[in-house]
Amino acid sequence: LPGEDVDALLSHADLALYAAKSAGRNEVRFFTADMASNTRRRVAVEEGLRDAVARGQFRLVFQPKIAMRSRRVLGFEALLRWRHPLLGDVAPSEFIPIAEDSGQMAAIGQWVLNTACREAAAWPVPRRIRRSSSSRGSPASSPERSRWRPASTSR
To answer: Quick check: pTM over 0.85?
Structure first.
């Protein structure tokens, strides 16, 4: 690109190489400005996740699980939400894979489990909760951690 310095050109080449490798074998990718902005966004999300728990940026929302025939509430699924002070609301589909890739999911998952149990234990009617988890093989997605559990602070 005219006017670009050598470092910028090498950085652009690295981004295009990474995109080609991610696309699969025998793929070619040319640098686009979107590659740079996507990388900046990913870095911002990863850095923001590092202290999101400590800064109180996560919250849980509870979605009822209802039996179709009886319409009885079976329990609730705890869904993780994140509001970053600069990025705004970040979708779980964006931040969970980044948290898994960067090794932060175990700490976040522990916060979810502790918070869900603490909040559910304060409900007037005992209910079961289920933490929604990813499917990428992290500890958060193991079968024993995703079963319905009675709301309690003793787990």
So the answer is: no
